[in-house]
Every structure is written in structure tokens, then in C-alpha cells.
Amino acid sequence: MFGWNGTILRVNLSKSKVAAMRYEADLAKNFLGGRGFAVRILWDELKPKIDPLSPENKLIFAAGPLTGFALPSSGKLVLAAKSPLTGGYGDGNVGTHAAVQMRKAGYDAVIVEGKADKPIVLLVQDKIAEFLDAKHLWGLSSFETEKKLRELYGPIAGILCIGQGGENLVKFANVVCQEGRAGGRPGIGAVMGSKNLKAVVFIGSGELSAAYPKEMKEIGAEGYREVLTKPNYAFWKRQGTMMTIEWSQENGVLPAYNYRECVFEKAEAVGGFAMEKLKVLNRGCPQCNMTCGNVIKGSDRKASELDYENVAMLGPNIGLGDLRQVAALNRAADEFGLDTISLGNVIGFAMEASERGLIQEQVSWGRFKETKALVEAIAYRRGLGNMLAEGVRSAADKIGGASNRWAMHVKGLEISGYNCHAAPAMALAYSTSSIGAHHKDAWVISWEVKTGRESYSEEKVDKVIEFQRIRGGVFESLGVCRLPWIELGFELEWYTKFMHAATGMERNWNDLNLIADRVFNLTRVFWVREYGKNWSKEMDVPPTRWFEEPPTKGALKGVKLDRTKYDAILQHYYKKRGWDERGIPTKTTLKKLGLGEVAKQLEKRVEISE
Predict the structure, then answer these.
(1) Other residues' Cβ atoms within 10 Å of the Cβ of residue 278
(2) Predicted confidence band at 1 (pLDDT cuts at 50, 70, 90)?
(3) Distance separating alpha carbons of residues 439 and 201, to the nearest angstrom
(4) What is the CA radius of gyration of the chain?
(5) Taking each helix axis from N to C terminus, what angle separates 34-45 and 509-531, rounded to the nearest 10 degrees?
(6) Which long-range contacts (CB under 8 A, 24 or more apart) does 590-594 make?
(7) Hey, do 7-203 and 418-489+508-610 end up sharing a CATH topology, with the first three levels equal?
(8) I need a labelling partner for 606 at 20 to 30 A (CA). Which of 78, 166, 204, 481 fits?
(9) How far are the Cα atoms of 3, 48, 494, 533 from residue 223, in angstroms, in the given order?
(10) What's the CA gap between 391 and 454, in Å, rounded?
């Protein structure tokens, strides 16, 4: 095969054994790589209902056929496992040198299974894999860990590691690299911690094999030049995703005070222009020329890489309006290896619970020192932090008081930074995402604001599915970033050209969308298999707050979602997806996608419609 290496590395930590395996070409043809490989492996190899933090869970690192080539923003790696936070399929992607180095070492994916009997580092250097003692690293932050490993293995090494959050099995611990790049928000860092795997180091010396190397070189260079010509490029380089703070405030979708409000009185102080005045550095992922990592020094005088999500969730959502203080919280989260989106969500939940007298602890809106102490308590599971470390769904179940009505999650994954009191399409996107409430699969809110947010039209359903195919299916499986397309307008036709140069295969977007549907449906049936008879359409419904508690401030004061109309577009969505009224793919749909054997396996867990 061209484009793909054709090899997966299987690592058994319990037995300290590794084996390089060739895989069938049909896996690449039907699932591409990245998320496609990850969900196919997890479906095939995991027994239903296993404990996500047990040795039986499998940790997958998966790249795509474009990962590592000299193409715009092609440095992505998918990190996946059964999620300890949600109990369903969990993954995240991260732009990292580990993606490039893993591919150069000769692997398209790595499967980590079992559990080491003591903390270790997995070192993969081309065809040699070693298990190194990590006793001296256990207890260190992700930044300290990477620094020590980089001193040993140099600047080109791809290093993925966990902080104290992953070690202590915080359910939303993630995996960190390059001092601020992070991925795997449904608890992939906790899965690493449960396996005593402190870090993975990839070093590769091989070259990726393209079907048409001359074409690949030329089209890659042409693509990089094209990115530079886009009208929004200059402003993007200045602010990256931080421009979204002002946009969200202006359009009433900014999460404030645990999503109770859609605007924040100090939004200007934490926005993109405020960030520009404090900016000391711009950095990004490998293979990228539209770098979006904006670094400022926080109130702790430490460098912190900011983007929209971490600022929205650790700023307005918890009532904090000082950007340097927000940066300090973000830095602490990255060092501990905690997902900033879920972290800001559980802290906002705790603040509201305190305000309502549902917990004894006093946790007040906008109090920086109290909040920073709570971040540490979560990482080490101390006091209130121990409850919050389980995620907002679990916390709501424990404290009661109808708090589940304002626990902001879908399927157990905390909602990322867009308030949907007046955004039914985005609410649908959150509710039907492959991993729980995350914007990555289908960020439709910008389109929805432009085209009219009040409607519950089938056009909105179509747009959610279109974006889920492109973003959550194709990009997540090819191993490339979505931002050139969605932010700058880098045309989709580039990716079929890249595919041809890399693999030699002629694939149009109809072909790619079919693969995306196959991947998306497999993630769905993974969820259904795990939840079994407890699965219902209520799994695809956003938090009650958006239906019953309208904001009290701003232009959208008094606006809320309509439950009856939402249910109608959800059923339209199911119909268009070829799913039954419960949101379960039918046998016919699965067979059309080449997943007939999957239908037979799923039928052992739940009843499936024809």
C-alpha cells in the first residue's frame, strides 16, 4: 500500500511484549485511519461492558494516510479508548510530533492493552520497543515529565504523557504534549494512568511512501501557498480561535455562569484583542502554517497557551474576568493533565451548587485563589475535588436537588463552549456527537447564527449531518486538521487530491462521505452495545436548562429551546441517518455500509429494527 504503512504495533503491558502486525488492505480502504481505525479496533477487540479503567480496556493511538506528509495541518493523532467518563466510545485528537514520529517509525496505529505492574514509559524507536522504568516520573506534572524525557531523547522525539490527573484517574484527564497541546477529553489520560503508562515516546527515521511522490511534493507546496492567500489568514494568525470570545458575546452564545447566561459582563477583558496585548508567542502543531496557539504569561508568570474553549470555560463560565488569571488556571490544568472544557464545566457546576446550598463547601463565582485550589483538589481527588473528578453527571447524581437539570453534559461528557438556548442545530450536533457533547464533529453554530437560529428546519438537520461527515468522519480519519477548511475556506477538493497523491486511490467526496457514515455508525453502535437496554432517544437530548431556564441578560433574554420542536428535528435526524425512533441504526443501514456482521453482534445486546 502507498500512503499507509500497513502495520499496527500491539503492546501488551501485562506481559511486556510487543508485536508488529500487518493488517488487511480492506481496513484502510473502508476506514481510512485515525478515528476509523480506532473504533473498528475497539469494536472488534473489546468485550461489552468492560470496566474502562481495567486492564481489559485498550488504548489506541491512530494516524491517517495523510498524517506526516508535507501537507497543510497534517500532524494529527487520534487517541481513543472506551471512555471512563461516559462509558461509551471516547476519543480526541491532538496535533503532535508524536503523530509524525509514529508514522516515520513505521506504524499507522498502536494498540496498548493490559496493565504494567509498575509505572513505565513506552519507548518506540523504529522497529524496537522498550519498557522503561518511570518511577522517577510518577507524580510529576505533564510539563516536568516531557522536559525530562526530551533531555534524553532530543527535540525531534514525539512525546505523549499524563500529569497527576491521569495518575489519579480523574475521569476527564487527558493526554498532553508540547507544553499545552492536549487531547482525549473523555478520560483517555485516565486510561493511560490505569495502565501505569506515564508516557509514550516515538522516534522514527523512516520515510512515508507516497504513490506519487513528485505530485505529493508539488501539491503539498501549492496547498501551503493557498492557505496563505485566504482573506482571514492575517487575522487568524493574530488571534486564532480567541476571536470567538467577541463573536460569542456579540451573538449571545457565550457560556456564562454554568451556561445560565449567554453573555458575560467582562467578556472584552478576556477576548481576542485583550489577548493580543499580552501575547508573547505563537505556536502550533507540526506541518501547520496557520498556527493557532497563542501564548501569554499568566498571573503566575508562567507561559500558557490559550484558545477559545479553555478561556470560555475557565473564564465566563465560572465568572472570572481576568485573562491572566484564566491563563494561570489553564496552565495548571495542562500541567495536571485535566481537560479544560470539562474542568470549567464541573467548577461552574460546583459554584452553582454552592450558591444553591446543595454542598457545604463555599465555592464562589469569579474567585481565582479558591478556584485554583479546587483545580488542584480535583487533580489529587481531595475533598470536593474527589466528587468533581468523576464528572458533572456523576456529581449531579450524588448531590441531587434537581441538579441534573443544570448539569451541562450529554451522555456524561461536559458540553464545550457554546450556549444553545437559541441554537437548536448546535444543540442537535452536541447531542448526536460521536463522543458526547463536543463541538469537534459538527461546529454548525456559526452557520446557524448567519442563517437564522429560531427555526427547527430539516435544512439544519442536513447541515449537522454534512458537518459530521466532513469533520467527524473524514478529517478525523485522514489525520488532518479541520481548521484550514472551516476557518479559512481551504477548499475540500484539496483533500481528494492529497488522497490521490498519497495513496494512488481516486476518491471523490461521495466516496469519503460513505466512509464517514460507516465510521459514524460504528461509533453509534459501540455506544448502544455498551448501554444495551438502557439506551433510548433521551441519550440524544441536551440539558434541561436549555429548555426550561432562559437567560436573564442580553439580546436573547427569555429565549429557550422548544422541546417538542427539538424532538421533531431529532426524529428527522434519525430518519436521514437510517436509524430507528430510538436512535439505533437499522439492519438495512448497517448492511448498506458493509457492517452486516456488526448488526449480528449488536442484536445480541438489543433488539434491532429491519
Answers:
(1) 15
(2) confident
(3) 29
(4) 22
(5) 30
(6) 590/521, 590/525, 593/514, 593/517, 593/518, 593/521, 594/30, 594/518
(7) no
(8) 78
(9) 18, 43, 7, 48
(10) 31
Q: Which CATH architecture has domain 253-409?
A: Orthogonal Bundle (1.10)
Q: Which amino acid is at 169?
A: L
Q: Is 431 exposed, middle or buried (0-12, 13-18, 19+ CB in 10 A)?
A: buried
Question: Are residues 59 and 81 in contact, defined by beta-carbon separation less than 8 angstroms?
Answer: yes
CA pseudo-torsion sign 209, 215, 221, 227: negative
Specify whether the CB–CB gap between 10 and 18 falls below 8 A.
yes
What separation in angstroms does the CA of 128 have from each of 5, 21, 134, 207, 307? 16, 14, 18, 17, 37
List Cβ neighbours of 76 (8 Å cut-off, separation of 6 or more). 34, 63, 64, 67, 93, 94, 95, 96, 99, 285, 479, 480, 481
Write out the three cell numbers for 231.
Answer: 482573506
Rounded-to-10 torsion of CA 492, 494, 495, 501:
160
The per-residue pLDDT for range 75-110, each reduced to its tens digit, is 999 999 999 999 999 999 999 999 999 999 999 999
**CATH number corresponding to 418-489+508-610:** 1.10.599.10
Phi, psi at 47, each rounded to 5°: -75, 145
Alpha carbons 6 and 22: distance in angstroms, whole number: 6
All structural domains of the chain with their residue ranges = 7-203, 253-409, 418-489+508-610
For residues 76 and 202, what is the distance between their CA atoms, to the nearest angstrom? Answer: 14
Tens of pLDDT, residues 249-272:
999 999 999 999 999 999 999 999
Q: Give dist(CA 323, CA 493) in Å, integer.
A: 39
How far, rounded to the nearest angstrom, does the alpha carbon of residue 270 sit from its chain's CA centroid? 23
Q: Does the CA dihedral 509-512-514-517 come out positive or negative? A: negative
Encode 383-422: b = buried (16+ Cβ within 10 Å), e = exposed.
ebbebbbbbbbbbbeebeeebbebbbbbbbbbbbbbbbbb
| HEC string for 151-175 | HHHCCCCEEEECCHHHHCCCCCECE
CATH number 3.30.200.20 is the correct assignment for the domain at 7-203: no
201 touches 122 (CB < 8 A): yes
Q: pLDDT tens, 447-462?
A: 999 999 989 999 999 9
Residue 49 in grid coordinates: 461492558
Does the pTM surpass 0.90? The reply is yes
Which H or E element spans position 130? strand 128-133
Instruction: Please state, in angstroms and rounded to a whole number, the distance separating the CA atoms of residues 360 and 88.
Output: 32
Find where cell 456482521 sits. 597
Distance of CA 1 to the CA centre of its chain: 29
pLDDT in tens, 34-82: 999 999 999 999 999 999 999 999 999 999 999 999 999 999 999 999 9
Task: Give the DSSP letter of residue 376.
Answer: H
